[in-house]
Every structure is written in C-alpha cells, then in structure tokens.
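Let's sit down with a protein and look at its sequence and fold side by side. Go ahead whenever you are ready, and we will take it from there.
>
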Amino acid sequence: MAFDRLKAFWEASTLKVFYDIIALEAGQGMLPISKTLMGGCLAAYAVGQTAVHWLDHEALPALLFGVSCAALVGGGTAGVLELYKRRDKTVQTITALAGVGAFIAVVSIILHFVFAVALPPPLPTQRLVNFLLFPITLWMVFAFAFIYRHAGLRTIAAFAVAATSAIVIDFIFATLMH
C-alpha cells in the first residue's frame, strides 16, 4: 500500500521527468512551465559547474566559470529558440538543460574523486582524469541535443547548438577562467 503511494508519487514528480530526460526517454514538455524552477535549475547548474571547476582552480575563476556556463545555457538557449520561433518552449528547455547539466556536473565531480583516488601522484593525475572524463562531455552533447531536438530544432541544428555549447563551456570558458 505504501509502496503504491510512493510509486504514484514518483511517477507524478518533476524528478521523474528529469530522470526520463537524462535517460533520453522523454522531452522537456512534461516539465512544468515555471520560472522559479528554471531559476533554481540554473542556480544548481551554476553551482555544479563552479564545483567542477573548483576542483582544479581558484575560487573566483571557478565561480566565474559556473556563472558563465549558466548564462550561456540560459541566454544562448533563449536566443536560439527566439531565432527558431519556439519562444513557447524557452522556460521548459532552459529548465531541462540546466537540470541535466547540474546532474552531469555532480556525476563529473564524483568520478573526478574516484579517478583521483585510483590514479594518485606521481601519475599525471589531472591529465588522466580529464581524458577519462571526456565521455561526460559527449553525454552532455547528446543530452543537450536531445533536449534541443524536443524544443523543435532539427536534428543537425540541435547537435550543432549542443556541440557549440560543449566546446564553449569545456574548452573556451575552461581555458579563459584559469
């Protein structure tokens, strides 16, 4: 009886929608259109990206990195959806991107610690960790492309926007925020 109520609660929850998006089983259309949720997800994404960058850098550059990533996801997505005349999907799409990005950041932090413990110095730990965590970047590209595709972008455009976001975040911002 309690299990059935718990299962019903899970099935109707926003967390279940995020799980389905991360698993590439559902689009962001199931998310509520809530600017509060969008703001919370953007804040979580900024904190997650700050924490990822803080593992290897000073606090201020890490904070700038996190805020820049959230601004890129929020502002860039709003601009792209405006360009494609899909303004009605903006809040849900930014919410999904930021929520998935925050989850991927947490996974990256966990794996960073696991690899750092498994590969202690004198090995070139940071280089090895970055190499081993590259699939996380690919996951982000595919997840973001999936979300953009569900926002109404064509497949190639969705992948182009997602790949550009990943390149800007993981290579340009990460290099500039040293």
About this structure: The radius of gyration is 17 Å.
